[in-house]
Amino acid sequence: MSDQSKRKKLSRLVPTVRDVAKRAGVSPATVSRALGDKAVVSPELRQRVQDAANALGYRPNAFARGLREGRSRIVALLVGDIEQSHFSSLTKHVQKELSAVGTDLLLHDLEHREDRLMHILRQAPALQLNGIVLASSDTISSAAATEIAAARNAGIPIVAAGQDLTWAGVPSVTYNERAAARHSVGQLLALGGAPCAYVGRVQGSAVGTERHRGYCDAHEAAGAPRDAALTWDVAYRYSAGRDAVNRALREGIAFRSIQAGSDELAMGALAALTDHGLRVPRDVRLVGFGNVEMSAHLRPALTTLSSHAEEMARCIHQALDSQWQGQAPQELVMIERGLVQRQSS
Amino acid sequence: MSDQSKRKKLSRLVPTVRDVAKRAGVSPATVSRALGDKAVVSPELRQRVQDAANALGYRPNAFARGLREGRSRIVALLVGDIEQSHFSSLTKHVQKELSAVGTDLLLHDLEHREDRLMHILRQAPALQLNGIVLASSDTISSAAATEIAAARNAGIPIVAAGQDLTWAGVPSVTYNERAAARHSVGQLLALGGAPCAYVGRVQGSAVGTERHRGYCDAHEAAGAPRDAALTWDVAYRYSAGRDAVNRALREGIAFRSIQAGSDELAMGALAALTDHGLRVPRDVRLVGFGNVEMSAHLRPALTTLSSHAEEMARCIHQALDSQWQGQAPQELVMIERGLVQRQSS
């Protein structure tokens, strides 16, 4: 028997939230609400849904039972790469925010792989998750957008964190990456940092593309020429920053400052500069992105762009909560980053 | 109605794996196996369990259904603090190892809090997890050990990763922390690094206690006096390492080397030493613990003790797999750390 026919057979045997919704003549989201949060549906509607569930022998699983009993909710957090400090910090704060309202967090490391994203989205209805937070910096394909829409249609609240997915109908909480990079690179250029290099993922990264746009904006605003050889499109870790700088120096590419797409890349770049006897900021000014904890403990301490994981977690929770209440969440929340001035620029 | 009586009522209404086990006269683990992996129970036994499940109206939830259909398994990984690089790296490798055999990973950040550990252990049977990997460095109380035993009795395979929990009946995969610290500190003392300080969590950390024992062993072996004022018991992050060094220098405590309990603490210590105009390794030799990715990109590059997340993940998988096969796993697997010699010592 093929996997698909197995699944089909299974779905005939085990009534799902969709079956109950069809029988009760309501949306799957309404079924979840009727069996869950007692404040937001009328007693008549709840009874209708309950009758349909009983007639079909529908049983919510342990997660959903917990929800109905007001004991626990489960939200899945999907992150691009748990080894990147940005994602582990976001994880910590989202867990804190949600656990304060009795909600548990299931974390899923996507490893920047869309097949992993598709897999968890397809599983989501069966797991009867109470929400999905999609914290991926990677560009989302239209196939993935379709999968996201399917999960939403199954009544699962979804929030995008980090990139703007409103084009796919997903309420989003992002940073204003473009403005942040424009501000920071503008300052580097003003301080005599031209030519200024950009090191970080651009192609395939929705977030990186925004940051790189800000880098271009700043050159345009300053009337500074921009050399394509100074965009070092690499991913994602320390060694990529180190290797990019080593390569540029080997090739004799001249630069007086570097805007990095992450603090990790900046740290790798700093190591390569130091190894070549170049001093930061005297010879090369260097700015990171994201203000991860490590960056304050580098010497020279790293100038970088702030993150606000606590605020982002709060906005994520709000966007989920609106959906739990059956209300439309704010479509796009954009958080501004500030320049954290330290020793390296 | 109190929460407890609600739970009791719920457990009467919804038959659990334990109810099925009781009726079929087998263990809960056997129920899981009989409804799951088709290779390891006799057809007669499977039929008996299936009959009991049918009689009680027992339905495995989505996770368990997936398992039975051979589609997916879910293992929970509980980590002490996802922001510590050691844990995010372990997470990545455990997910890789398990996804290769069609198993998904649910990650749970304990924030070094035992109440969070208790909570997830209590939920585990209802979630019908296919396994729990307990990756916590914190000392486990007897109350938590009791909760672990309950989850095991409910048929959930458990593996400890990082600390030795064989005293609680849990198969464990650990590093030989004591030998690693003994070797490293022995070398520091031999290189003229006395007096040598230890910075890191000791009290309340099972792993830290082992490392500190190795630090004491090395002093004893070298016949070097050991001063309690040189054990800086702090947790867990960069700033703790920085603050400990700043405090010691302020108080005029003399030291010629530092063994840190983590690379993050070592990086914080390096920042404080640099700020005081002390040169590493000329004035103070410095060794980290764990060889997280960042440590190679510090300047001076950090000497540290190796980690083997890939091997640990493989051993964790083996310990789970033995239990899935109904076999006794190896009680204790101990992985040796090596000294990664770089510039700082």
UniProtKB/TrEMBL annotation, chains A, B:
<dbReference type="GO" id="GO:0000976">
    <property type="term" value="F:transcription cis-regulatory region binding"/>
</dbReference>
<dbReference type="InterPro" id="IPR000843">
    <property type="entry name" value="HTH_LacI"/>
</dbReference>
<feature type="domain" description="HTH lacI-type">
    <location>
        <begin position="15"/>
        <end position="69"/>
    </location>
</feature>
<dbReference type="InterPro" id="IPR046335">
    <property type="entry name" value="LacI/GalR-like_sensor"/>
</dbReference>
<dbReference type="Pfam" id="PF00356">
    <property type="entry name" value="LacI"/>
</dbReference>
<keyword id="KW-0804">Transcription</keyword>
<dbReference type="Pfam" id="PF13377">
    <property type="entry name" value="Peripla_BP_3"/>
</dbReference>
<dbReference type="InterPro" id="IPR010982">
    <property type="entry name" value="Lambda_DNA-bd_dom_sf"/>
</dbReference>
<keyword id="KW-0805">Transcription regulation</keyword>
<dbReference type="InterPro" id="IPR028082">
    <property type="entry name" value="Peripla_BP_I"/>
</dbReference>
<keyword id="KW-0238">DNA-binding</keyword>
<dbReference type="GO" id="GO:0003700">
    <property type="term" value="F:DNA-binding transcription factor activity"/>
</dbReference>
<protein>
    <submittedName>
        <fullName>LacI family transcriptional regulator</fullName>
    </submittedName>
</protein>
